[in-house]
Amino acid sequence: MLGLGRKDFGLLVIVALLTLLAPFILNPFPSDSSLAQFNAGYPDLMQRFVIFGIFAIGFNILFGLTGYLSFGHAAFLGVGSYAAVWMFKLLTMNVIPAIILSVLIAGVFSLLIGYISLRRSGIYFSILTLAFAQMSFALAYSVLTPITNGETGLQIALDDPRILGVSQTADGSIPVTHLFGLEMRATEVVNMGPWQFQFSAGYYLCALLMLIAFYLAIRIFRSPFGMMLRAVKSNQQRLYYTGLNARPYTLAAFVISGMYAGLAGGLLAAMDPLAGAERMQWTASGEVVLMTILGGAGTLIGPVLGAGFIKYFENIFSKINDNVLHGWFAFLPDGIEDALVAVVHPFIGKGWHLTLGLLFVAVVIFLPGGLVEGGQRIARLFRRKPAPDTERAHQHTPAE
Amino acid sequence: MDAIILQTLNGLDKGSAYALIALGLTLIFGTLGVVNFAHGALFMIGAFCAVTLQRLLSASYTTLDETRTDFLGNPAKIETPYVEAWFGPDVGAGIIEWSVPLAILFSIPVMMLIGFAMERGLIKHFYKRPHADQILVTFGLAIVLQEIIKYFYGANPIPTPAPDALTGSFDFGALLGMDPNVIIYPYWRLVYFAFAALVIGAVFAFLQFTTFGMVVRAGMADRETVGLLGINIDKRFTIMFGLAACVAGLAGVMYAPINSPNYHMGMDFLVLSFVVVVVGGMGSLPGAVLAGFLLGILESFASMTQVINLIPGINQIIIYVVAIIVLLTRPRGLMGRKGVMEE
């Protein structure tokens, strides 16, 4: 269906259900219970889930398929954000032109950077992309201030032209982003007993775009083009000897993933119309690498899982404080309780990055396939299929 | 002329830091073949060694002075550092003041230990994994180290002054017979440069003139053959990792007075140091040092007002531009060896 195999279609349906029902799934606790702070079903956070999901899906097309590790992908996200905000300033507050422009600009930008960076591979490629991203970051902060508004970040203002829209609304305030009149921040709050669910227009736009992005990623993974990219990863030398030039393929993958990043940047700006240079910093590039690896590089669902996982726990862990911990361990004797709280304390609240770093190191060491591999291992454990021999027989080890 | 001398001098201290970090990176890469993204964190830990020693030395006990009162009328509290109590006020104050140079001695064993622990505990298991995995695991490790430091020392920069005798600046122009006050240069930066030169010289001498260094160089050229000769090359490479950590740590210790240490200073330097290593040529020690100084000086020349007026923003990106040009025209870097990291 939709040109997908049965398994892939099933995966798409599952992801679609999860994203569309996210306001329910992420809000399992009644809003008056003490666990309500672990609800993640509010629009701002859900939007970040899917937007960074798009970013990670795009990154995975490059890293997961070709093995080229880019450390500069945040540059494309930043460029996309700037492009979108400029569209809001100059043309209209409708998000469609902004998103289209951000994807296009990020595409052109990644074509330029990719054309140069892909002349080298391995560690050199990583460093080249890192250098380009840092360069864009430094420029956005300093010389390009007329375009990027430097440290303050680019924002929309009352005196922007907005040729197709209005500079300011009737009551003299800054207009909000909308999709043909449907405001992005419009949120429908539904109360069902003690539960409260929020349905945000902005979230559903992002979710829809993520599903399209995910669908396209599946098609790319299963296409002959995707096979070529995998060939680049497994043995580029052999590809050359076959008489094929790998560079157009890797460049295409680079541009596609750059456009995904641009889409994510454009959506970030569409949800909250401002863009800052810190979005381009290399720590931001590092974050998408973390998401992809944590979820499982080279798998379809992995990057989405990783993005959701990191953004969710970033939010939750930052909220837990010592009082919450004392509440949890209250059933223990006082001494043990205090000791436990003291042990856990460095890892929560502001210490979330420490937890993330440790988790990441552990994943790279023990689970190179990320959460997806973890899930598979657990599944295998339960199935207890005594058939590893046949599996091994089918694996062809390539002659070096 | 004076502007050129001034900018060259200005470039030297930053260049020294780049050169030291790049030297350590290259040592690790050349011996173990590991791309160490946690090297910036080692630099940062070095700087925090200086902070720690300063705090340790300033550890003090409180006595009540009944003869004086504070503004509330209570007896005044007098903090006396233990070192002052032990060695007398003058010597004690001197020791505290010279805590940064003393931290050099303190940091060497600490960095050695951290280096050994890192190599034996984590990086050892990644020799056979792809370079991407090595980058990722050391990147994660860098985050962890950084966050640990942040947990203990907070997120704000901690001022770590140099000894008073070395804080001022001197008139370099007068030395060359120019008008006074044309070239003013802080003493500490000169100290930093001299120190860096000393460390670099020591590392090269160690590799060049000792048997141990000879074996290590042989191992860098052909690890397998050295192993077949019955030499435990792994052990020596572990020691080299500790040495590289030391070099980074020392660079950090001495950099503390120039830039107050904060927990992300390592990351800021790391990106640039990688660029330096690549420009110098992966695996080439002289290349790393040369490129470090070269890029440091280039950066300071690019910060001249005349240059910025000519090409706005060039000071921010000059290093990256140079790196891109070098990588595209001389893929092996300035002094890269053939066959190192060419896929």
Describe the structure.
The complex is a heterodimer of chains A (400) and B (343). Helices cover 64% and strands 5% of the residues of chain A. Chain A has 400 residues and is mainly alpha-helical. In chain A, the strands form 3 sheets. Chain A has a two-stranded antiparallel sheet with strand order 1-6. In chain A, strand 4 and strand 5 form a beta hairpin. The longest helix of chain A is centred in the middle third of the chain and has 25 residues. The radius of gyration of chain A is 23 Å and the shape is globular. The model of chain A has no long low-confidence stretch (mean pLDDT 85). With 343 residues, chain B is mostly helical. Chain B has a two-stranded antiparallel ribbon with strand order 1-2. A two-stranded antiparallel sheet of chain B has the order 3-4. In chain B, helix 1 crosses helix 12 and helix 8 runs antiparallel to helix 11. At the A-B interface, helix 6, helix 12 and helix 16 of A face helix 6, helix 12 and helix 15 of B. Chain B: One of its GO terms (biological process) is amino acid transport. Chain B: Belongs to the binding-protein-dependent transport system permease family. LivHM subfamily.
User: Strand-and-helix sequence of chain A, N→C?
Assistant: HHHHHHHEEEEEHHHHEHHHHHHH
| Spatial ordering of strands, largest sheet of chain A | 1-6
- Strand content range of chain A: 5-15%
Shape descriptor of chain B reads globular
CA(first)-CA(last) distance of chain A = 39 Å
Cα Rg of chain A: 23 Å
Uncertain runs of chain A:
none
Report the structural category of chain A. mainly alpha
Number of helices of chain B: 15
Q: How far is the N terminus from the C terminus of chain B?
A: 45 Å
Q: How many strand units of chain B? A: 4
Total domain count of chain B: 1
Tell me the number of helical segments of chain A per DSSP (H or I, 4 or more residues long): 18
List the helices and strands and how they pair.
The complex is a heterodimer of chains A (400) and B (343).
Chain A: H1 6-20, H2 22-25, H3 43-66, H4 74-90, H5 95-117, H6 122-141, H7 145-148, E1 154-155, E2 178-179, E3 182-183, E4 187-192, E5 195-200, H8 201-222, H9 224-234, H10 236-241, H11 247-271, E6 274-275, H12 282-295, H13 302-319, H14 322-328, H15 334-344, H16 352-366, H17 370-383, H18 388-394
Antiparallel strand pairs in A: 1-6, 2-3, 4-5
Helix pairs in contact in A: 1-8, 3-8, 3-9, 3-11, 3-12, 3-13, 4-5, 4-11, 5-11, 8-9, 12-13
Chain B: H1 2-32, H2 39-58, E1 60-69, E2 75-81, H3 82-87, H4 89-97, H5 99-121, H6 131-153, E3 169-171, H7 172-175, E4 184-186, H8 187-209, H9 211-221, H10 223-228, H11 233-255, H12 265-280, H13 285-302, H14 305-310, H15 314-329
Antiparallel strand pairs in B: 1-2, 3-4
